[in-house]
Specification:
With about 450 residues, the protein is of the alpha/beta class. It is built from 15 helices and 14 strands.
Length: about 450
């Protein structure tokens, strides 16, 4: 059966809706307005009608340098022109160079493993932790997101009616965000409130905990930062109780610093997981950290060995993109991060000033180039604080109005805004001018 070329030309979504499961490649991409984008360059996106948008979504964060960065794309072209391919045997000259670059980003990065996606990397990090400790239980964050697999597909943007009141010092029920997770598996996973170290302490005293995995900043519900001493307290507790501290830096890694947020806050995890910005939009992920733990992938004792496999691991195209991205981020002794701070600080100040001018209750939380306007009177500290105080309807209305006027952020409340190296001052100024009109016009 053939599709109507007329239908497809009129709406490119026809084939997706007809043949793709759910009509879309990732359910996380479902959005209203449902825009079909046709190209991207630097800080901009264009849709099928030729309309240009200044992009702050950045495909959920990977585009730290901007879309189609010339330096990164040239590196990819050279790999292809030189005849590199996926060999499926042995090693290549590229993957060792990338591993060296990553390990040079922070002292705690003694060894790395290269994978394809953040979910793969968090999956493997947890398996390493269980093999290292001989324990089964793990701790995750309410309001955090660490991937799609059974261990972590739970307790993200949970309605408070389902979650119940804040339980400081205690765990929450495992509330899956996917069907198909066995009950027996759920019993091994313990969600706790972010910034609640007493809850972590209570769980490790009660269960044989292999690891805690957390985003050091909860960047899947905007920008929810750790309180002073929280991450340091987790590091100390992990040392005392013998569990593995895993920082999920899939969104924070390489965006806030070459060594991720860990190097900003001065906390050394046992394992750190990277993705997204590591290769500026090309599919690449990595686990880095303690060599003794990562050496379980090649342990001589097969009873202790953790399986590391993946046909596409360290594909030359993706490795070349990651090498080029890190080179660009490291240029000028990290000058791009100073620019991120300058641009982020300016945009944060403008948004907050415009909100006050419009009489809106607003707080903009920011770390470097990542920010999120919250329609509440303070910076949130955990999911309960955010869910109980933020005006979600106003947030969504502001986003949709801004999109209509050419400023693209993902049209779901409390999703991160990302500035890239390609955003010029004029883009930020245009954004502020649009938001001034949006704040003055949005009514609920």
């Amino acid at each position: 059966m053939q599709s109507s070329n007329t239908d497809v030309a009129a709406d490119p979504r026809v084939l997706s809706r007809r043949y793709l499961a759910g009509g879309i490649a990732s359910i996380n991409r479902l959005a209203d307005p449902d825009i079909v984008f046709t190209r991207a360059q630097g800080a901009y996106l264009w849709d099928t009608g030729g309309k240009r948008y200044i992009d702050y979504h950045a495909a959920f964060g990977p585009y730290v340098l901007g879309h189609n960065d010339a330096y990164v794309n040239d590196a990819v072209r050279r790999v292809l022109d030189d005849g590199h391919s996926l060999y499926g045997s042995g090693t290549t000259e590229l993957e060792g160079r990338l591993a060296e670059l990553i390990c040079g980003c922070a002292p705690f990065l003694q060894s790395v493993a290269l994978l394809n996606t953040g979910s793969e990397a968090t999956y493997q990090a947890l398996r390493l932790a269980r093999a290292w400790t001989g324990r089964d239980h793990i701790i995750v964050m309410q309001g955090g997101y660490n991937g799609w697999h059974n261990d972590v597909a739970c307790n993200l943007m949970t309605p408070l009616g389902a979650l119940g009141p804040r339980r400081t010092g205690e765990e929450y029920a495992f509330l899956p965000i996917s069907a198909g997770i066995p009950q027996s598996h759920q019993a091994l996973v313990h969600p706790v409130g972010f910034n609640d170290i007493e809850a972590v302490r209570a769980i490790v005293d009660r269960y044989p905990v292999a690891a805690i995995i957390l985003e050091p900043i909860l960047q899947n519900i905007g920008i929810v930062k750790p309180l002073e001493g929280y991450l340091q307290g987790l590091r100390k507790l992990a040392d005392e109780k013998g569990f593995v501290l895993i920082l999920d830096e899939v969104k924070t890694g390489f965006r806030h610093a070459l060594g991720g947020y860990a190097s900003v806050c001065g906390v050394s995890p046992d394992l750190a997981v990277y993705g997204k910005a590591i290769a500026n939009g090309y599919p690449m992920a990595a686990i880095g950290g303690r060599k003794d733990i990562l050496d379980l992938f090649v342990d001589a004792d097969t009873r202790k060995r953790v399986l590391l496999a993946g046909t596409y691991n360290a594909h030359p195209v993706m490795v070349a993109a990651a090498i080029a991205t890190i080179e660009r981020l490291a240029a000028g002794e990290g000058a791009i991060y100073r620019e991120f701070e300058r641009k982020g600080s300016w945009l944060q100040g403008e948004i907050e000033a415009l909100g006050r001018e419009a009489g809106l209750e607003m707080f903009v939380s920011r770390q470097g180039s990542a920010l999120c306007p919250y329609f509440m009177d303070h910076e949130p500290t955990d999911w309960h604080d955010l869910a109980g105080n933020h005006n979600f309807e106003l947030d969504a209305a502001v986003r949709k109005s801004a999109i209509a006027q050419g400023i693209y952020t993902f049209p779901i409340a409390v999703k991160q805004w990302s500035i890239s190296g390609a955003h010029a001052d004029r883009d930020l100024e245009e954004t502020a001018a649009v938001l001034k009109k949006v704040f003055a016009s949005v009514k609920l």
